[in-house]
């Protein structure tokens, strides 16, 4: 706990650098693309449309849970994109910024934390799109929406935890760079992103599933915050997800702290 | 009051077949097998202390561990053993324009680079105009252009301008002065002198011994990772230059059989002797250099001459001189050449010579017979940048006032 406290303080002391690196990533990202910010709209909407097509036209699935299917899918994608993009950005952050790391000293964690910025902006844009979508479907918003920042924080912690572990190992073992995209690809289907936990909740292994994939609980948290009267989130879900994200975050910090001194020797 | 205390720090690197990053497969393998790794000590048991306001020059040949030492001192990498105590805020400049992003404008990069080097936003804002001013008019005009459109000169000028406005208590600098055109070099060395004149502590790695001599009061000479000498700049540089110049200044062979050369021509002795001025213990641009070559010839009645080439360390031939051709018999032949002082500029040089028959057939080319270094020497100057050119003649070049009206 002491270590985590020390590390967070380290970042706090260089808060300005974190902000400017975040700003750098955001402005570079939107300078290099013609459509700029609209990609943050196009990507989740396109993914949603593809699944709507698959469910309605191909698989003839009429209803997956009793909630508006567009909102179920879109809120899942909103969560998943934030988690997956953050995870990938954090995992690559040390290698991508190797020129900085080998030339200047600053708390290395800053580069990992600042790399979340782009995903966060994308999330906020997607969130606005979600509100427009919900209103256009004549759905009212959930009052739990005020708890959305909390769900976002839990997602950030777990993305940081895993991301820091991958970032630490990818410096010495470059294979790790290949593993993260695979996790993102399979994780999309192993997590209730384009379906809900309703279909799983009667299974005997449901608790085990929640423990093995704490992201399932977090998606349902997002949906509870976003979809009116959404009642699939259990207190067991909440406890497992919060505990898992804190544990993974601490583990990530410990692993990172153990390895950060040797980064320069492998870059 | 010591501001920096370095206590026997060492840095070890394991030289294995795959340097740097490894594949997961090899990583897992190495957990189970004990691989014999070659150990390399980049920095070995280095200790020194500096007081507030000291300017330390770090010199040594390539691979002596200078850069590794700077990286350890600036906390970029950790020493394998030993301890460092530093009191005060450190800024390190290991390259110009660290973290510049090509897509961002000059203005954005000033804030980015400044923050990376440890300046607060407030500090950058308050010095922004000065930075742009120092970087020059051209930068000011292209301040809102992405730096990827900058020429390399502009890039370096902007980078240096930011670094020059850093205000730490301890500044670690690696060779950044060797950048930019002559004009900008003058400006940056001027700035360094300005910085050096206040109570900042500076650690400065450079191959420019003139700059070290004039900016630093203390010098650390590293050799193969170890401290060769640490002390007052004058003492250390004198020994350093003297050591540099022991490189192959004389070679001689006792017998024909062991000597290099061909069937017909073998080298007996070659020597390069500078005529040092009293009190001087290494060669600089003022000194005459005497070169003596002796070689054996085994064929009678030969029309021979010697042709000597002098190369700069970069490979260009500076000059080629030849002896007259003469008729020589079996035995020992000698050729002597004197290169006058105030002719070659400071730098590293190589000498090769060939023995030529009948003015056209090369009998043997003795390559790189001498490898020597000429040090700089300046009086009454405030400029310490590298003097340009391969030659450094002291022609008389008078200047006078012709009239007092315009």
From TrEMBL, chain A:
<comment type="similarity">
    <text>Belongs to the ABC-2 integral membrane protein family.</text>
</comment>
<feature type="transmembrane region" description="Helical">
    <location>
        <begin position="238"/>
        <end position="256"/>
    </location>
</feature>
<dbReference type="Pfam" id="PF01061">
    <property type="entry name" value="ABC2_membrane"/>
</dbReference>
<keyword id="KW-1003">Cell membrane</keyword>
<keyword id="KW-1133">Transmembrane helix</keyword>
<feature type="transmembrane region" description="Helical">
    <location>
        <begin position="105"/>
        <end position="132"/>
    </location>
</feature>
<feature type="transmembrane region" description="Helical">
    <location>
        <begin position="144"/>
        <end position="167"/>
    </location>
</feature>
<keyword id="KW-0812">Transmembrane</keyword>
<protein>
    <recommendedName>
        <fullName>Transport permease protein</fullName>
    </recommendedName>
</protein>
<dbReference type="InterPro" id="IPR013525">
    <property type="entry name" value="ABC2_TM"/>
</dbReference>
<feature type="transmembrane region" description="Helical">
    <location>
        <begin position="33"/>
        <end position="55"/>
    </location>
</feature>
<feature type="transmembrane region" description="Helical">
    <location>
        <begin position="179"/>
        <end position="197"/>
    </location>
</feature>
<dbReference type="InterPro" id="IPR047817">
    <property type="entry name" value="ABC2_TM_bact-type"/>
</dbReference>
<keyword id="KW-0997">Cell inner membrane</keyword>
<feature type="domain" description="ABC transmembrane type-2">
    <location>
        <begin position="35"/>
        <end position="259"/>
    </location>
</feature>
<dbReference type="GO" id="GO:0015920">
    <property type="term" value="P:lipopolysaccharide transport"/>
</dbReference>
<keyword id="KW-0472">Membrane</keyword>
<keyword id="KW-0813">Transport</keyword>
<dbReference type="GO" id="GO:0140359">
    <property type="term" value="F:ABC-type transporter activity"/>
</dbReference>
<feature type="transmembrane region" description="Helical">
    <location>
        <begin position="67"/>
        <end position="84"/>
    </location>
</feature>
<dbReference type="GO" id="GO:0005886">
    <property type="term" value="C:plasma membrane"/>
</dbReference>
From TrEMBL, chain B:
<keyword id="KW-0067">ATP-binding</keyword>
<keyword id="KW-0547">Nucleotide-binding</keyword>
<dbReference type="InterPro" id="IPR029439">
    <property type="entry name" value="Wzt_C"/>
</dbReference>
<comment type="similarity">
    <text>Belongs to the ABC transporter superfamily.</text>
</comment>
<dbReference type="GO" id="GO:0005524">
    <property type="term" value="F:ATP binding"/>
</dbReference>
<feature type="domain" description="ABC transporter">
    <location>
        <begin position="22"/>
        <end position="249"/>
    </location>
</feature>
<protein>
    <submittedName>
        <fullName>ABC transporter ATP-binding protein</fullName>
    </submittedName>
</protein>
<dbReference type="InterPro" id="IPR050683">
    <property type="entry name" value="Bact_Polysacc_Export_ATP-bd"/>
</dbReference>
<dbReference type="GO" id="GO:0140359">
    <property type="term" value="F:ABC-type transporter activity"/>
</dbReference>
<dbReference type="GO" id="GO:0016020">
    <property type="term" value="C:membrane"/>
</dbReference>
<dbReference type="Pfam" id="PF00005">
    <property type="entry name" value="ABC_tran"/>
</dbReference>
<dbReference type="InterPro" id="IPR015860">
    <property type="entry name" value="ABC_transpr_TagH-like"/>
</dbReference>
<dbReference type="GO" id="GO:0016887">
    <property type="term" value="F:ATP hydrolysis activity"/>
</dbReference>
<dbReference type="InterPro" id="IPR027417">
    <property type="entry name" value="P-loop_NTPase"/>
</dbReference>
<keyword id="KW-0813">Transport</keyword>
<dbReference type="InterPro" id="IPR003593">
    <property type="entry name" value="AAA+_ATPase"/>
</dbReference>
<dbReference type="InterPro" id="IPR003439">
    <property type="entry name" value="ABC_transporter-like_ATP-bd"/>
</dbReference>
